[in-house]
Amino acid sequence: MAETYRYWITFQTILTKEILRFSRIWVQTILPSVITTTLYFVIFGRLIGERIGEMDGVAYLEFIVPGLALMSVITNAYSNVVSSFYSSKFSRYIEELLVSPAPNWVILAGYVAGGAARGMVVGVAVMVVAMLFTDIEVHSYGVTLLVFLMTAVLFALGGFINAVYANSFDDISIIPTFVLTPLTYLGGVFYSIELLPEFWQGVSMANPVLYMVNAFRYGLLGISDIPLGVAFAMIAAFIVALAAYSLHLLRRGIGIKN
Amino acid sequence: MLALDVQQLTKTYKGGFQALKGIDLTVEEGDFFALLGPNGAGKSTFIGILSSLVNKSSGRVSVFGHDLDRDPERVKSCIGLVPQEFNFNLFLPVFEVVLNQAGYYGIPRREAKVRAERYLRQLDLWDRRDTEMRRLSGGLKRRLMIARALVHQPRLLILDEPTAGVDIEIRRSMWSFLRELNAEGTTIILTTHYLEEAESLCRNIAIIQHGELVERSTMGALLGKLHTETFVLNLKGQVSELPELGGFVLQHLDDCTLEVEMNRDHTINGLFEALSRNGIEVISLRNKQNRLERLFLDMVERRPADEGV
Lengths: 258, 309
Known about the structure:
The structure holds 2 protein chains of 2 kinds. By secondary structure, chain A is mostly helical. Chain A has helices at 2-24, 26-29, 31-52, 60-90, 94-98, 104-133, 141-165, 171-185, 198-204, 208-221, 228-252, and strands at residues 54-55, 58-59. In chain A, strands 1-2 form a two-stranded antiparallel ribbon. Chain B is an alpha/beta fold. Chain B folds into 2 domains: 2-223, Rossmann fold (3-Layer(aba) Sandwich); 228-293, Alpha-L RNA-binding motif (Alpha-Beta Plaits), CATH 3.30.70.1560. Chain B contains 10 helices and 14 strands. Chain B has helices at 43-50, 72-78, 94-104, 109-122, 138-150, 168-183, 195-201, 219-223, 268-277, 291-302, and strands at 2-12, 18-28, 32-36, 58-63, 66-67, 79-82, 156-160, 187-191, 204-209, 212-218, 228-235, 248-254, 257-263, 282-287. In chain B, helix 3 packs across helix 4 (109-122) and helix 3 packs parallel to helix 5. The A-B interface holds A 5-7, 9-10, 12-14, 16-17, 87-88, 91-93, 95-103, 253, 257-258 and B 13-14, 48, 51-55, 72-74, 76-77, 79, 81, 83, 85-90, 100-101, 103-109, 148, 152.
């Protein structure tokens, strides 16, 4: 019991530190996503969207809301952990944690929760902006929140692994630019995969972002290209795999010890 | 009880560099222990392994009876580390740095605040509690590292060159603080390049060179190995010709300053009597070189780099 309480305090400390970090610089961490997404809504939703008409039976503006919101969650959860953990490595204050009796899983949970918190805060802010442009009635609050949370956790884990391997500040921007952004844009944010030729539909199925966007779209609008169960199973599988790998890296001290 | 028990500790880095070659070392509870060695001797690797920042290759480490492999959390709870290099988040205020460290050790916020205030006051940092780390001077950062290392009240405090680059006033106040801490029961292991610091503070000593332990003894016994000592004398008047004094080797530094090398069989009283007989009056004297420094250099210079490989 005493041990559990100690772990809880450690977790709280890391999480609070992370939340304070992105809150203090909210102009850099929260505001840009809100402004960018607003521009997406204005340009793709209002100006171009009105010419496109409907997609999967809903107005194009409503169709892109889930993808844009999730894109903000993905980007922010990832970049929070990758920049925070890499900075702690670079300035060596990660040693404050490594010399303490905090178990690896508590360290990981603290950083991931911090990243997920920023992802959720930005995601909610983007949804509030979306409500100003649309009249979406949420189809399922449970599914919506669960996908929000699971996506934030998954990409926070991705950010952690990136930070562990990073040897310079360049290394923490390579994956978001060359992997994360293409995956997100090709993950059905702006289109239904049914519009793609059959071959590219098959290729799209290998993109994990597709499952998240569709599960979230189901939660908000009640439509999806992918069965909901399959989408949740895929997200959960990715979370388990990345968490296990992150713990392995911490246990071996790769990138942070010696 | 042993505060530290290390057996056959080895560390080989990637690329094959062997930093530690089978170190055996024990430190008694309550000791103030000096761990010395030239740059690259393996001291920081040794400390890194004790504090879990470096993975050992082989060997056994036990801290207050807790085995590092079997019970790393207990070992970490017993140790407070003051590292050689600054490792802070430069954008956090002083108070938050100490509070966070307490949190990592699972100390509840209320208790953490009490302890943080106590140690910041003791180290004269309380007035700076809201100052961001990047705005602190080097000396203040060094003191903060001690406060941070103490917040979980470790039984073993490891100081890796804690006074490097610190002015003499702050250094003396840190010495005084560390003496008090040791008197209250905290075991302290100190590495330093200021050998007068080790001589002044520590009761026992070990010297590492090329990853091996080359000396382990009490400070008194080690200093007893010194056969000769050299003093610099400031004279009242000028001395143009040096007298012959049996047992003492005199050398002119300038007209009013002499250097005297004396065997341990002789005494300072004997030296003064002999100088008086020759009409030489002494205003003051000082050691030419710190005693420990001289022994240390003798030992290190006796062992070439490839010896024992």
